[in-house]
Amino acid sequence: MGHEGQSKTTQGQNNQSVTGKIGSSGYHYEIWYQGGNNSMTYYDNGTFKASWGGTNDFLARVGLKYNEDKTHQQLGQIDAYFKWTKSGSAGGYNYIGIYGWTVDPLVEYYIVDDWYNKPGSYLGQKKGEFTVDGDTYEIFQNTRVNQPSIKGTSTFPQFFSVRRSARSCGHIDISAHFKKWESLGMKLGKMYEAKVLVEAGGGSGSFDVTYFKMTDGSSVPKTTTTTTTTVKKTTTIAPRPSTKTLPSSCSSKITAQGYKCCSDPNCVVYYTDADGTWGVENGQWCGCGSSANCSQKIIAQGYKCCADSNCTVYYTDADGTWGVENGEWCGCGSA
Asked: Does the annotation count 193 as an active-site position?
């Protein structure tokens, strides 16, 4: 994906939250800090960059903003997909992952998937652990007394899920953490936000989110339009399918970066770039799609490349050249 669309940079305001909408994306940004030289740059597709130096506490985040009138159960399933890089340092405490607040009751929460220094004893009391998105998370609860919050200086609990092994890309099932916390008696209120966050308690560093997507129960899936094309051939050709049936092989450009091919031959393509088509398994990015040489636009729709390098082209459109094998459409020709 990378950074796409118009970019805007804000230096925020010391000891005050600065927040707003990001174009027509449906996402919001927010920046807050105590001291230092800090900024964040956000893009129309929700990706963002942040940098800090000399701060006591710095938070930059992008994601879903709510009206404080619905619980997470009312909002439906909430998920995040991400890929980021980091550099520099972030002081004595730092968190990278999902962040937000609820009201009634007022709760600050973290799902920590990455860090500069792994969070330690300041997380509070350990409440339990559970496994999701390919790893085990330890769960903690802490109490903050007369500290800054979205409702001014307040006393409130903090909830934490901390992944045992750090990662910089993948999927976070946010709702799974909410449900687990509440099963442990950690009550959440009505949602203020759910966002991808970097927080630094000092140091000098930078953070760059190069792939970003968040969804909830209100997200509207894209519809699929089926086009029927008449082909002059004696064999019967199946209609071009609307569901993906992808092989478990994948682009060598993806595996060269250290990623694996998805094990599921029916993997879902989450995005496509110059390296190939990408899926997610166990919370990690993987190559999802054929490594054969035909149009990536055809592969991205869920079709295979023709196995025969001398395939016959039956149809050509903006996506590429199409052949037929075993009564099914396939990509026929150069990528």
From this structure: no
